[in-house]
Write a structure and sequence with these properties.
heterodimer, A: 145 residues, 3 helices, 29% helix, globular, B: Nuclear Transport Factor 2, Chain: A, seven-stranded mixed sheet, 7 strands
Amino acid sequence: MTSTTTSTPVSAEVYEQVRCFYSRQMQLIDSGRVRDWVETFVEDAVIANNANPEPARGREIITRVAHRIVNEARENGVLHRHWLGMLTVDRLGPDSLATRFYAFVVETAKGGQPEFYRSTIGRDVLVRHGSGWQVRERYVTHDGS
Amino acid sequence: MSTVSTELYQEIQHFYARQMQQLDAGEAEAWAATFTEDGVFEANAHPEPSMGRAVISAAVRQAHAKLTEAQEVRRHWLGMLTIDRGEDDTLFVRSYALIVATKKGGTPSIAFSTLCEDTLVQDGGSWLVKYRKVTRDDL
């Protein structure tokens, strides 16, 4: 596990850019726009989490997993909202960043009360893509699992 | 007192994000290093204030060991910052923090809602907490 201690923080401008990137990315998945969401990852991106032994490698598999998650929520009649915050952004190289963030998911059933569904910490490697960024690696730790 | 630039506001937000991550990860030394050598941590949940880095780091180490034993993860979500600049470039930061707790096999819940009042001073290129007062809403 990388320590939070050593750090090369980025400029306020890049920090803001990355925050906007995540807001958009979270909104895309919560809206079920899987095709647009997956484009925020590089072609051969890897997503892993502590709850699943097998990481998802490449957009094709990532898309399949995302569809499954989106469909599951639909079938259960619930909406998910990803809230991402407490973001730190460190420079890895001229075109790559290491980020860490907290994210919780609020789940609301039709006519129901919102509830915390999950609390997580995420670690990403972002790489430059045009004037923006894409995720190359993501590791998510689900609290409590 | 005067307000601060957008850039400084961002920098301070970034500072807190890192500091909360260090706290929740139980990185006691790194956490204590974000306070001045003679930094003070006062809380209405504690009988008396922690004074100095050694005491502050020991308190975090102890608290984190307890949580680990209880198989509980806590996440400090800090936001709603107001930042005012005092004399000598001292910053007065007022913020809210929600503490989200998750026990093993459980779902997250809000353990505490708090008010955090900090005095920050600059040391070289980085900011340090000189005085922190945390007030839990339930006490």
